[in-house]
Design a protein that fits this description.
By secondary structure, the chain is an alpha/beta fold. It is built from eight helices and 18 strands. It has one domain: FAD/NAD(P)-binding domain, CATH 3.50.50. Helix 1 packs parallel to helix 3 and helix 6 packs antiparallel against helix 7.
């Protein structure tokens, strides 16, 4: 019987696997598709690098920037520092592969099969793939917004608590500044994030209903700010974007299961950023399993960053009001003049 089975080999699942292996618990990871490019910008802020110092020396191609260009809904542009360190732009394909390789090198086992069925059996889990069935003592769901593990435990994430994003990978923008343009009414933003070998250009919104409008907004954005972009691939996806604080009150761990990363809906409700929460979830869930008490994860994540997510839910409605976005960018401009003028 497998002691710990992880469904999903993204950052959360792979980091959990690495930390488990470091505690002499050698998990089995189930994933038929990773590593792959993900529908996100791939931006790692300086404060995240302070939490996980190994990110400062990533052995993968990436970009580094000291400033970020922010553009308000009315077109006001401000160039500002974002934290004290460097902003990293990474390929999610290479980042996820790096984390997965780290886990496998530590002793985790990767099964490149899709999990199509789960069943609880008297204190253990039956995991079914198209090829065969497996038995596991503990199950970790790191399988994204449409998690089969979440569906088999507490139920799927509501569509109300999902957002949407759309965009491209492009060439020819490797020397471009990191650029963010806010969308006030749609509670979202557009971005240009160079990542070394390519650049992510995208748009995301907290509201699924804006999906068709976002494509038009992004086309105008590209025409205005990076018409030289050579599109090499396109993506679109649903992402967690919790709007109801009660969603975070649901238990996401039981006696022999845990939900982490996007499966736990641990994504910033304002920015849509999830990498830092994925890594924290991976670390905390591994600690709970190593102590043979998966259920303690419910308290661990809330203590570590629960208030941050709840605060973001409350603030989102204010943050994306157009006058406040304008005032915020004016404030940044004044700060920059004082600091760098």
């Amino acid at each position: 019987m497998i002691k710990a089975a992880i469904v999903g080999a993204g950052p959360s699942g792979s980091f959990c696997a690495q930390k488990l292996a470091e505690n002499a618990i050698y998990p089995t990871i189930f994933d038929h598709s990773h590593p792959r490019e993900k529908p996100c910008g791939g931006l790692i802020a300086a404060d995240v690098q302070e939490i996980f110092p190994s990110l400062k020396t990533l052995p993968i191609t990436h970009s580094e920037r000291s400033t970020i260009t922010m553009i308000t809904p009315s077109g006001r542009k401000v160039v500002t520092k974002y934290g004290k360190g460097k902003l990293l732009g990474i390929s999610r394909l290479k980042f996820d592969l790096h984390l997965l390789d780290m886990a496998v090198n530590k002793g985790a086992h990767l099964v490149k099969e899709k999990v199509v069925g789960l069943e609880r059996k008297y204190g253990w889990w039956k995991i079914r793939t198209p090829k065969q069935s497996y038995a596991a003592k503990c199950l970790i769901g790191a399988d994204g917004v449409n998690s089969i593990v979440r569906r088999s435990t507490i139920g799927s994430l509501s569509n109300v608590d999902k957002g949407v994003c759309f965009g491209y990978l492009a060439k020819g923008l490797e020397n471009k500044d990191i650029t963010i343009k806010f969308l006030s009414s749609k509670k979202g933003y557009m971005w240009i994030i160079p990542r070394g070998e390519n650049t992510s250009i995208g748009v995301g919104s907290a509201e699924i209903r804006y999906a068709h409008e976002l494509k038009k907004d992004l086309a105008i954005f590209i025409s205005d700010f990076c018409p030289e972009a050579e599109k090499i691939s396109r993506w679109t996806a649903l992402i967690p974007n919790v709007k109801n604080a009660k969603t975070f009150s649901k238990p996401i761990a039981g006696s022999n299961w845990i939900l982490i990363g996007d499966a736990a809906a641990h994504v910033d409700p304002i920015t849509g950023g999830g990498i830092v929460y994925a890594l924290l979830d991976g670390e905390l869930s591994a600690e709970a399993i190593a102590k043979d008490n998966p259920e303690m994860f419910n308290k661990m994540w809330k203590k570590k960053f629960g208030q941050q997510l709840l605060r973001a839910i409350k603030l989102r409605g204010w943050v994306y009001k157009k006058p406040l976005l304008e005032l915020y960018c004016m404030y940044l401009k004044v700060q920059n003049t004082a600091l760098f003028g």
